Amino acid sequence: KAGVTQTPRYLIKTRGQQVTLSCSPISGHRSVSWYQQTPGQGLQFLFEYFSETQRNKGNFPGRFSGRQFSNSRSEMNVSTLELGDSALYLCASSALGFWDTEAFFGQGTRLTVV
Amino acid sequence: AQSVTQLDSQVPVFEEAPVELRCNYSSSVSVYLFWYVQYPNQGLQLLLKYLSGSTLVKGINGFEAEFNKSQTSFHLRKPSVHISDTAEYFCAVTPPRTGNQFYFGTGTSLTVIP
Predict the structure, then answer these.
(1) Nearest-angstrom CA–CA distance, A44 and B18
(2) Could you tell me if B12 and B85 are in contact, meaning their C-beta atoms sit under 8 angstroms apart?
(3) Considering CB atoms only, which of A31, A44, A107 is closest to B100?
(4) For residue A14, which phi and psi values (nearest 5 degrees)?
(5) How far is residue A23's CA from residue A21's CA, in Å, rounded to a whole number?
(6) Are B100 and A99 within 8 A, CB to CB?
(7) Of A95, A97, B25, B86, which is most buried, counting CB atoms within 10 Å of its CB?
(8) Distance from CA of A79 to the nearest CA of B (A)
(9) Closest residue in chain A to residue B40, using alpha carbons only
């Protein structure tokens, strides 16, 4: 069974640009969560999607948005990139979301903003 | 609100020695507790989790953790570490039925010295 796949693995963008990251969950999983990992702030929850609906959102500005498709694949978009957006972005999938007790993480996308 | 404190940011230990990584949490509701491990340039891998029942939880790679409700702690232990255990370890909590919205500690970097 394939794991959680995130693409691309590495990305370099210029300040002011926008970026889209992709996450393909484990087959059959309907919940996808996104996290930002930085040395200063650690791991912070961005948002969670279940069956194409955003159910939870962390404390991030509106420049961070996401969506989920009918096949459960999810994308995260960051507009007007800032240097502080440089981070490892991780997504996690689970089968049932609310009722699950385990999430499986992808390897992450390393975003560097220059 | 929930918060997690990992008391040691770095823990060096000699190979085959025992190790304990400390984790304390604060929450106004019952939570599930987790330990994840992250190897360089990788995502997070679940080591073990506490949902209910026995307070001593055994995980993968010989790790175990003990839930102490009165001290709101969930310390991770291994009786004999290997070089391959060198990694970053994260303690996390999540209230039940919150869609995998984890609250992570800041991490403990475990370095096993040959």
Answers:
(1) 30
(2) no
(3) A31
(4) -100, 145
(5) 7
(6) no
(7) A97
(8) 23
(9) A107
Burial bucket for residue A61 (CB in 10 Å: 0-12, 13-18, 19+): exposed
CB proximity list for A88: less than 8 A, separation 6 or greater: A36, A37, A38, A108, A109, A110, A111
Query: Mind listing the pLDDT tens digit for each residue in A88-105?
Result: 999 999 887 555 667 899
Residue B58 confidence class, pLDDT cut points 50, 70, 90 = very high
pLDDT band at B19 (very low <50, low <70, confident <90, very high): very high
Judged by CB atoms closer than 8 Å, whether chains meet at B104 and A42 is answered as: yes
Contact B98 A98 (CB under 8 A): yes
A50-82 tens-digit pLDDT: 989 998 899 999 999 999 999 999 999 999 999
Question: How far is Cα A29 from Cα A46, in angstroms, rounded to an integer?
Answer: 19
Answer yes or no: are the C-beta atoms of A19 and A71 closer than 8 Å: no
Q: Kindly determine whether residue A106 and residue B99, on different chains, have CB atoms separated by under 8 Å.
A: no
